[in-house]
Amino acid sequence: MSRFNRRRFLYTAAGAAGSAAVLSALGRPAFAQNRRIRHFWWGNPDRDARTFRVIEIFNEAHPDIEVVGETLGFADYFTRLTTQIAGGNMADVIQMGYGVMFEYIQRGAILPLDEYSGGILDLSQFDESALQAGTVDGKLYALSIGANSHMAMYNTRLYEEAGITPGNGFDPYGWTYDDVKRIGVAVREATGVAGTDDNTADYQNFSDFVGQKGAELYTADGAYGVTQEIVEEYWSIWKDIRDAGATPPGPATAGLVGAEMSQWGIVTGQSATSYAWSNQLVGAQGLMQDALGAAMYPNTAEMIPGSVVQPSQFVCLSRDTVDAEAAVTYMNGFVNDPEMTEALGLERGIPSNAQVREALAPTLEGAAAVSVEFFNNIQGKTMPLPPPPPSGANEVEQTFERIAVGVLLDQVNISDAATDFLRQAEAILRRAG
């Protein structure tokens, strides 16, 4: 049986066993297995195959270290991790998400990495935004293995028909809400298609706008940090854009709140610009023929940036590691080694190492290449990443969307809607806290 087939056989058999799939290096001499560490992640068939390939590459290059991979689906991952924490037998390297990482740091389940930086851990090419996202109370706890940013996706054909191209009345990395209105109207007049989606009920855009106004969506003590004036200004901006004719009519937008990708305005041809996470560009492009371009979320008139960079996942060093230096050596390869990062590709998001992105660029085509170019161009131009949201945040978002639909349908005036939303948001957070 060939190495590939044997690996595939073991991976498939382990997955069929109904527990965490486990795989170590194949074809390794017995005497080389003196430093054995484990890597645990949540995955899917594509991610698992890529990660097991990375482990194989690392093991072949480091005969003194053996990495063993363990994977579960997302639904079961944190349940298993909780059991391992209680039993004191976590894997050496564990995968984390931004929204939950702080909880595990507070529980002492994750160790800081600062003592290894500049030695076996090379962070010289890491984006500052990624380092900040993995830093808590001045200590680096996590390495980003894939980053995301809020993105405005636009139909290049429709923009070009309106005479709008980057550098010609359009700065994808420096446009404002006024530009959104101006370009949206121009696209509609030239093509008959609304130039932009209406983000009145888009909590993602609203949360960024709150940061643009110098406020915090959620305060350190879990309260809502948004003022009446901010809510009113946000909804008034989009009403102005809508009233100018740059967006679809309010009722049409109201019917698409929370819609899946196949129903987005840019995909169906209802609008020329939609707003989402950057990792969704490839999926959206796959649903349409016209080429998509990428821009940041709009800036304010004062040029306060409207996008953030958020790591989708991290690798972290667990409290239960049996060999921290071996584990950090593996983590360093996971984010820096050209062969390992090529095997990972963009499946977990855009790499946070600038040299890795440069090396991957020639292998990418279409929307994947646009995503990496976009990510390179926004470095140093985004807002700081806010802390993860507290309990109750999902209900607050749903409440925002519901009340914003009333604004879109002209069922309530903006001032009254803002008052109602803030009253409900504060009550939700008090109850959740």
TrEMBL record:
Q: Has UniProt tagged this entry with the keyword Transmembrane helix?
A: no
Give its localization.
Periplasm
Principal location: periplasm
Q: GO cellular component annotations, sorted alphabetically? A: periplasmic space
Which InterPro entries has this protein been placed in?
A: Bact_solute-bd_prot1, SBP, TAT_signal
The record's keywords, sorted A to Z, are:
Periplasm
Q: What top-level branch of life does the organism fall under?
A: Bacteria
To which protein family does this belong?
A: Belongs to the bacterial solute-binding protein 1 family.
Protein name per Swiss-Prot or TrEMBL: Sugar ABC transporter
